[in-house]
Amino acid sequence: MRAERYKAVALEMATSIRAGDLPAGTRLPTHRELAHERGIALATATKVYRELAAAGLIVGEPGRGTFVRDLSGFAGMEPRRLPVDTRVADLSFNQPLAAEQGEHLRHALRDMACEGDLGSLLAQQPPGGRSTDTAAVATYLLDRGIDVPPHNVLLTAGAQHALDVILAATTTPGSTLVADELTYPGLKLLADSRCLDLAAVRCSPDGTDLKSLEKLARTRKISVVYVMPTVHNPLGFVLDAGRRQRLVTLARRHDFAIIEDATYAFLDPGSPAPIQTLAPERTFYVGSFSKNVATGLRAGYLVAPDPDRIRLIRALRTTTWGTSSLSTALVTRWLRDGSVTRLEKTRREDAKQRQAIARRAFQGFDYHAHPASYSGWIHLPSEIRSDQAAHRLAQDGILISTGDAFAVGSASPNAVRIALANPTIHELPRLLDRCRDALSTL
């Protein structure tokens, strides 16, 4: 079979999909059935489907088959955005912001303008931040059980920047990066941009399947494992202390590093001790002030193991060099005066109220969420396609996220994630009722 044969079959099927001859939601033949129908080898049929999936035309779902995707563009990793004048609500992304925060910012900026050396905010910070600022973050981390000197705290332009810096310092093209089979979409983008081999381990609303990780570690050399042990995105689980310790045992046995993403950890202050406290020599602890303070600040941090600090600083120099002096000044000011702690408490109470509303709205659905998180995960019944659900809601001006945005690999769950933070608490019940009605009538 000539190598070009699979491309010819893929092109023919792609043309049929784009022309509407194979409409969205059509269940395609199995790989074996396609091979028989087209008179091609099974391996060639697999290449055909891989080509179509890479083009965003089809999606495979474990145990269900391969389907033609809705091509309206409202599903997937980077969905279309509606024009502002037609958008009713964005439930695809969380930007929590309390009504009083604008005035809080106004007072902080006024106070900063009237005290100290304002010109110093125009000077470039050293990579990783000034010692006084890293000390403020180190003090803040004591409440999470992390006791490290300011020397080990490096400031970044958000958690995404921190992740990129860590991968730049610890991996090379072709290195194996492991994550849950449902994970933070930004990690997938970073793995692709750095040419890493992103491998998946099974997970469920109960947590990461460490037996799956152990099996993978026995057969492949793993460089880094990325986890969200406290308030996982998108499933909302919290790993118990036993699983955290077993993960550390595996990391030491198979000699891989751990990235602990704690972006949402503030939502569950009663969670078990961070993995960083169990294995500080190989754990990179990442946090940000996007979800607990404001997404526009683009301020974050990482706690660096001693042996890796110099490499991380070098990686910081090659990216943004350092963080914005103004953002850092605002964040550390609010850390010192207790504003961040108060905001986090407000966020937790707000998230609990929103989750209660969501659970009522989606009663009867296969709904999973942490009781104090800002999102919920819905496994859809087989007769409802997630991409078609996203299209239908987008027509009503409501944006949601589909499961394939979070899936590692070509197989995707038939699920959606609903973000709860953006609408007002008074608008949320009506919006979620509209989502429920749309999902019930497709």
From TrEMBL:
GO-annotated molecular function: DNA binding; DNA-binding transcription factor activity; pyridoxal phosphate binding
Keywords: DNA-binding, Pyridoxal phosphate, Transcription, Transcription regulation
Keyword Oxidoreductase tagged: no
Taxonomy, superkingdom: Bacteria
Domain HTH gntR-type: 3-71
Pfam families: Aminotran_1_2 (PF00155), GntR (PF00392)
Record family assignment: In the C-terminal section; belongs to the class-I pyridoxal-phosphate-dependent aminotransferase family.
Database matches in PANTHER family: HTH-TYPE TRANSCRIPTIONAL REGULATORY PROTEIN GABR
Record-given protein name: GntR family transcriptional regulator
Organism whose genome encodes this protein: Mycobacterium aquaticum
